[in-house]
Each structure stands twice: as C-alpha cells, then as structure tokens.
Amino acid sequence: MDTDKGISTGAGRAGGVSPPGAGGGDGSAPSGRAAAASPIEFRLDPASGVPTYLQLVHQVEHALRLGYLKPGDQLPKVRDAVSLLAINPNTVLKAYKELETKGLAAGRPGQGTFIQATLSQVALPELAALRKALLGWLATAGAAGLDEDGMVALFTSALRDFYERRSGSRTRGGSASGETEVVA
Description:
Elements: E1 16-18, E2 41-43, H1 52-65, H2 78-85, H3 89-101, E3 105-108, E4 112-115, H4 124-143, H5 148-167
Antiparallel strand pairs: 1-2, 3-4
Helix pairs in contact: 1-3
C-alpha cells in the first residue's frame, strides 16, 4: 500500500489540508487530546487573500477530489479547528454551512459534521503517477530558478491555455497553434 499521502492539497498560497501523518502541523493535538477522528487537518495561509472560510471549503473539496475524504468521514469538530487554527468559531461554521449548501457535508447535532457526497476523483494508481510527474516538474522548475509564486504563475497560465485550447477559444489573442504565450 502506498503510504506517501504527504501531499497538501491547495498548499502554498491557498493553504492546505493533509491526511493524518502527513506533517505540516505543529505535531500537537488540539486541546491536548489525541488527534480528532477526522482524516484531514486544516491549514491556513493568511497572506493568500482568500477568505478563511473559503480556504477551509477548498481544502475539503481538494481532499474529496484526491480521495482523502469519503462519505461518512467526519470533518474536524468546530472546537478543534478553532483551537488549532486560532480562528473564530463562526468562520468554521460558515465553511461547514457552505459545504452543506453544496451537498457535500451534513451536520449531526451533538456529533459533528460528516461528509455525505464526493467529487470526481482520479483512481489511486493514476494519481500516484501524476503526483510523481508533478514532483519532477516542480524540481525542474525550482532548478530553473522559479520560486513558489513563479511556479504557481506558470502552472496557472499553462492550465488556462490548456483549457482554452481544449475548448477551441483563444480569446486573449495569440494563435491557436500556441506560438504566442499568454502569461497571467
């Protein structure tokens, strides 16, 4: 079994969420207890410009897409997330309400919030191969001198170009053959 689940979905500028044992936290359990029953741990990036509640929503969505969360899994309890992240309880409640509105989670009074639906995801063998290829790309980009912001900008630009070519719409100028690069 592949034990390398150390990816942080949405890592970097938008915060990240990690499966247990992936690191990224301070190693202490909320409120001095053993780790909560949730298979994810939230992380925030206050410099991202993304509202805190949306960072939490995005992290749950990413974890669903990557298969770290599945229906029946419990999200971190509000008090544990508040303790770990030092944020207002209303922020966590707003994120969980957004997930409920999207049909992804449901609250159970006195028990917590649980995943009730999933998002499309790639099968595990393909995900592992894609992750390995992406890590290679990141190493190459780092060796070329790109910092994290440069990598994000290049990836975002390439992703946008990929979808524009796929849909056949080149709306910002440039040729359909890709001779002209459009950078975000």
